[in-house]
């Protein structure tokens, strides 16, 4: 049985987010008023917030996870950590060290059952950037290096989950080989899980969520096929979560969304991070 | 005892009793919410210290009990000093299960009445396989969605936030010379119903070391879920 390891402070899990910071990420995400880089940065910041929320107990944030964020393309041909002075960090450290805090509004229900607006503090760990080319191979190599070290320290942990958000093909070579090496890495509980989300700038683009065969992707789109081949097959726990949300998945479905809008991006991030949090001890 | 791997202080179960009033209460604070340990403690203390008669319908006193417990819970938390992550999560309030139990002297012995919300259980064991349990009667009935007692929202909502009491089920009985009443939070309650090891559980009550050893063994062999565990036994001598 794989992907069943209990996640505890002794055996934490790892989430590693990879985010494309190439110039084209400055274009609007299809169906929204904001750029792909803004929506992607906001979505990942929100997902980290959610993870911290799930790890928060009365005594503080428990280190059930380590977190890393790699940005690629902010500087030409460069991939780097987006966390200040750190690569992979325990989640409690992230909770203590946001880059800045924003005040946001949420609706809560008062004792009389009325919805009232309430302010709350929302942390931001990194800002959107859209600047140069798409050195995805370099990002994957950096991820591979970090994960190699992490697995050496956590050989029996829940396998690392890597989530890559991009809108275009790698400009620094073929990412297939390094992606294969990445998903061949494993703990005793299973192989590294590699998720890919392709963002679309086309307003009414048809998203393809968790496709199970390459044939459903646009013909002659090498990049779409590449991301499909690089993506892991969805393990059982993730598949169940997708089915609960009425998404069509089967035993061959890949951890991949092509032509994602904001809803699909949020859904992928949520499903990609939720299944492991069900193993918290 | 705390979930294996956690510190003793991480335990979110609570047990309170008042021998003079012959009242007992057990609660299992839900770990998905925070300050559930504070809430479970507030609810068991309020259950045994309040002037409630458990032989009446819980509808008659459960609302008042929750108001009192909310006051204890709300005042125990230093809302102004919480870091953002505790502040944001504590708004949602805390949740717990609850079993309240009261005995009263009858001409020929003792009768009891109990009320419950959720999957903490009472087992009335008469020896061997002769037992009654409630509100759950078999191990298959334990799931991930028990009814719960909610504290109501935290700050910035005011202390006076009104909470609707959940529906409680009730159970009553009479003690015989052989009777033992067990109060148990879900993991240990389910284990007792599944494996029927009442005799052993009762025998080890005076030895927390041996009891901890037994529970650790049962958890490691996957017969018992790794969770906070509270087991209380009450019997006549």
Key words describing this protein structure:
heterodimer, A: 281 residues, alpha/beta, Rossmann fold, eight-stranded mixed beta sheet, two-stranded antiparallel sheet, 7 helices, 14 strands, 31% helix, globular, B: 237 residues, alpha+beta, Phosphatase 2c, domain 1, five-stranded antiparallel beta sheet, four-stranded antiparallel beta sheet, 11 strands
CATH class of chain B: Alpha Beta
Tell me about the largest β-sheet of chain B: 5 strands, antiparallel
Highest CATH level, the class of chain A:
Alpha Beta
Oligomer: heterodimer
Radius of gyration of chain B: 18 Å
Q: Note the run of SSEs of chain B as H and E.
A: EEHHHEEEEEEEEHHHE
* Global morphology of chain B: globular
Ends distance of chain B: 26 Å
| CATH fold node name of chain A | Rossmann fold
Shape of chain A: globular
Look at the structure and name the CATH superfamily of chain B.
PPM-type phosphatase domain
Report the average pLDDT across residues of chain A: 92
SSE topology:
The complex is a heterodimer of chains A (281) and B (237).
Chain A: E1 13-20, H1 36-55, E2 56-57, E3 60-61, E4 65-72, E5 79-81, E6 89-90, H2 91-96, E7 100-109, E8 115-124, H3 136-153, E9 161-166, H4 176-184, E10 186-187, E11 190-191, E12 193-199, E13 208-209, H5 222-230, H6 236-244, E14 256-260, H7 262-277
Parallel strand pairs in A: 1-4, 1-9, 9-12, 12-14
Antiparallel strand pairs in A: 2-3, 4-5, 4-6, 7-8, 10-11, 13-14
Helix pairs in contact in A: 1-7, 3-4, 4-5, 6-7
Chain B: E1 13-18, E2 23-28, H1 36-49, H2 62-76, H3 84-90, E3 95-96, E4 98-106, E5 109-117, E6 121-125, E7 131-134, E8 149-150, E9 169-175, E10 180-184, H4 186-195, H5 198-203, H6 208-220, E11 231-235
Antiparallel strand pairs in B: 1-2, 2-4, 3-8, 4-5, 5-9, 6-7, 6-10, 10-11
Helix pairs in contact in B: 1-2
């Amino acid at each position: 049985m794989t992907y069943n390891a209990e996640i505890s402070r002794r055996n934490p899990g790892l989430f590693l987010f990879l985010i494309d910071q190439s110039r084209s990420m400055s274009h609007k995400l299809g169906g929204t008023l904001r750029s792909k880089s803004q929506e992607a940065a906001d979505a990942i910041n929100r997902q980290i917030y959610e993870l911290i929320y799930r790890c928060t107990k009365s005594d503080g944030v428990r280190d059930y996870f380590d977190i890393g964020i790699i940005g690629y393309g902010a500087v030409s041909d460069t991939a780097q950590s987006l966390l200040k002075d750190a690569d992979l960090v325990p989640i409690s450290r992230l909770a203590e060290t946001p880059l800045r805090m924003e005040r946001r509004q949420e609706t809560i229900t008062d004792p009389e059952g009325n919805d009232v607006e309430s302010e709350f503090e929302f942390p931001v760990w990194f800002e959107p950037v859209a600047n140069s080319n798409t050195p995805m191979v370099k990002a994957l190599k950096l991820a591979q290096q970090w994960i190699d070290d992490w697995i050496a320290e956590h050989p029996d942990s829940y396998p690392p989950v890597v989530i890559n958000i991009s809108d275009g093909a790698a400009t620094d070579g073929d990412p297939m080989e390094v992606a294969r090496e990445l998903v061949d890495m494993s703990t005793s509980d299973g192989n590294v899980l590699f998720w890919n989300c392709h963002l679309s700038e086309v307003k009414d683009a048809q998203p393809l969520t968790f496709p199970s065969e390459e044939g459903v992707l646009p013909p002659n789109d090498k990049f779409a096929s590449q991301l499909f081949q690089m993506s892991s097959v969805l393990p059982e726990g993730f598949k169940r979560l997708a089915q609960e949300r009425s998404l069509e998945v089967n035993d061959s479905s890949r951890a991949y969304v092509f032509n994602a809008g904001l809803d699909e991006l949020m859904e992928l991030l949520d499903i990609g991070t939720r299944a492991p949090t069900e193993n918290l001890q | 005892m705390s979930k294996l791997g956690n510190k003793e202080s991480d335990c979110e179960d609570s047990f309170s009793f008042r021998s003079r009033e012959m009242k007992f209460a057990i609660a299992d604070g839900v770990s998905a919410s925070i300050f559930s340990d504070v809430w479970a403690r507030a609810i068991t203390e309020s259950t045994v210290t309040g002037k409630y008669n458990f032989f009446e319908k819980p509808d008659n006193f459960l609302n008042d009990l929750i108001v009192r417990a909310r006051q204890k819970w709300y005042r125990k938390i230093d809302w102004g000093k919480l870091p953002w992550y505790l502040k944001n999560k504590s708004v949602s309030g805390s949740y717990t299960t609850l079993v309240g139990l009261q005995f009263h002297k009858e001409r020929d012995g003792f009768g009891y009445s109990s009320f419950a919300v959720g999957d903490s259980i009472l087992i009335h064991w008469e020896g061997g396989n002769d037992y009654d349990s409630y509100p759950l009667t078999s191990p298959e009935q334990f799931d991930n969605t028990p009814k719960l007692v909610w504290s109501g929202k935290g700050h910035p909502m005011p202390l006076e936030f009104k909470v609707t009491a959940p529906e409680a089920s009730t159970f009553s009985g009479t003690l015989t010379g052989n009777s033992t009443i067990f109060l148990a939070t879900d993991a240990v309650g389910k284990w007792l119903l599944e494996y029927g090891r009442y005799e052993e559980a009762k025998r080890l009550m005076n030895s927390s070391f041996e009891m901890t050893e037994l529970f650790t063994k049962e958890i490691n062999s996957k017969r018992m879920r790794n969770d906070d565990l509270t087991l209380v036994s009450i019997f006549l001598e």
